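Q: My labmate handed me this sequence with no annotations at all. I'd like to see what the chain might look like in three dimensions before we decide whether it's worth expressing. Could you predict it?
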Amino acid sequence: MVERRGYPSDLTDERWALIEPMITAWKAAHPSVSSHQGRYAMREIINAIFYQSRTGCQWAYLPGDLPPPGAVKYYFYKWRDDGTTETIHEILRCQVREAVGRAEDPSLVVLDSQSVHAAVNVPAATTGKDAGKKVPGRKHGIAVDVLGLIIAVVVLAASVHENTIGTALLDRVAARTPTVTKALVDQGFKTEVVEHGLAVGIDVEIVQRNPQEKGFVPQPIRWRVEQTLGTLMLHRRLVRDYAINPATSEARVYWAITDVMARRLTGTSTPTWRGA
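A: Here is what I predict for the chain of 276 residues:
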């Protein structure tokens, strides 16, 4: 049997060692009725997910030396729906924070969103046009900690106001990370978000920009969310929203950052596609 040539997105042994325990536990909790262990190695399934994330290819265009699209799709959607994708992400997030001497969960988050074009197959009911940025598609809203690690993700129509993104993010942060007591947002968010934050126990501060500053000027702490949004754009599958179900787009964000965190924990550099 000819050994697969490998791709830059493939898991190294060290990165796979971080993820394997969660996958092994999942497999143990989901035994086959026939005791069949599955035809494809779980490491190769995740390699295929990472390959698609980084290259942006369609399911049918996954290389022939990776597991077939049907198998990869089965696990991608299964893990999306049963919470495994987020569980893997959360465990690695805690490890990254602990590695730099921080508590597992943060007390402060930064909120922001990014409008991306939607593909023609995306249902019109879940898309819209960002009036400010003139982008027809969806908004990917994220909440990150001071390290730029994602705490929550929401994907909505690009036509929704930042207040809608903000309140949805605050709800998820409050429900999943009760240690958070403060959130920073830019001036695109309004008092509605501040009031909603009070209702869920989070002090929301609208960071005012210095009117004397021209162009893009990174703001203390808030720049972390901009950095994370930029990092997500290194994953071509996120440059445009192709997902019929917004939950799929959310799952892709979690997989992208899982890849980043696994590299960070093992000191592995991330290959860039800028020279392509």
